[in-house]
Design brief:
single chain, about 525 residues, alpha/beta, Rossmann fold, eleven-stranded mixed beta sheet, 16 strands, about 30% helix, globular
Length: about 525
Amino acid sequence: MAFFSRILTASALAALFVAPGIAAAAPGPEVTIDTGTLAGSTESDVASFKGIPFARPPIGALRWRAPQRADVWKGVKQATEFGHDCMQKPFPSDAAPLGTTPAEDCLTANVWTPASALAGGRKLPVVVWIYGGGFVNGGSSPAVYDGSAFARQDVVFVSFNYRLGRFGFFAHPALTAEAGDQPTANYGLMDQVAALQWVQRNIAQFGGDPSQVTIMGESAGGFSVLELLASPLTKGLFDKAFVMSGGGRKLIGGMPLESDDPQVTSAEQVGLNFAAAQGISGDGPKALAALRALPADKVLGGINLAFRGDPGKQEYVNGPVIDGKLVVSDTDVALRRGEMKIMPTMIGATSWDIGFPMAKTKEELFAQFGPDADKARKVFDPTGDKPFEEVASQVARDRLMIEPAQFVAGEVAKAGGDAWQYRFAYVADSKRKEWPGAPHATDIPFFFDTVAAKYGKDLTQDDAHAADLFNRYAVNFVKTGNPNGPGLPDWEAYRYHGRDVQMLGPDASAANREDPLADQLELVRAAAERAVQAD
């Protein structure tokens, strides 16, 4: 096939052979947006603008408030460096290490666009990237999130930062009262909405078309895409969705803002618990003022992907809250009720994705399948001699990521939308002795074609071929709502309760085929639907 005849992509060559310390950037282009004029940089016919404020710094009195429009500036603001990633404790083994020092002042956006688009007269499709990190880590600065490969193919690429941890997801009775009839608690999601509104107001200045916006996210970013699809407050902000390992079942669910049930912990109660741990009592304005005066490291509390706090103390809500305004319900509930926006959706997971086994024995594990327990044993452990950890991990990843992606694709198809389901199974050559499959988040540098930044000197021709193939699928989807295009293996739209999947294979290939996990996923789906009926 044509894509196998190419030795290395342009991005791979550039990253490998530009010598350290040699500047390749041309004089900076200028763009005027609604808050002032920006000066960016140009490299290889791609113009980039980084660290653009899309909202006022959420510090001081603006901590735990909806994002406010950025202030207007005079003169020309230099936009050649990333702004701070949002406040967090970096995670040592993060697949996308940050490129900045985290801080509370972090609400900035970045744009990559063809340099020729700045002359005006073009309306290019736009993709907006939402990073993952469990809502406690992540940022827009990692090298693997560079948008140049999209821009080189006439797509305007936007990324931005949103608040994390207790800065982004926090409730308290005083905050609820202060918000009145406006959203509360989900400040990180409010930042995402504000960034999409900024895109609507300003992206035309970069050559982008505000009527052609795809939102694309991985892990917590993929979950965010689903939340934005389900929210009543995002109408008209985007027209296509790309969900990478974003779940879709209630296993990743929201805590209610308030609760009269003593058996159900509310997000407000969690906020009161945190306040009490800081020596702050009461539920009125004085308590809120004291909370806003806390040093950032006290609010952070060491939370990251490796540590979510003492579960017995319940001092962090662990992500989005059902506040009844921005987040009205769990996303699977919204799908079933017909409340989720139906649009072209590309969704999938990796072949060795994450999951969190809960059972301690095989008996306990298969008992979770209820009346299908014996069938599940035969499907997941046909000879009965697989190590427990291996079987439990497969069930866990099927339940958390792989089947929920299929579920969302099926619901979109059932509602009449175009759904494109994939399974990413490619493993970089340098990692094949370590990984039995493609781990969580390893699809990102391939869909972005930033494999040179990820693998450096270990990059192989097969890795580059795979990135070229998978990135072209992503670009086609952003442009048309359909990943298919000239020179690419056919990708069939997913059918409701179908047994097929587009396999992005370990040999840098792609093919629509029967899902090798089809029997497993049918059992997982049946168990999930029984749980829904029991609620």
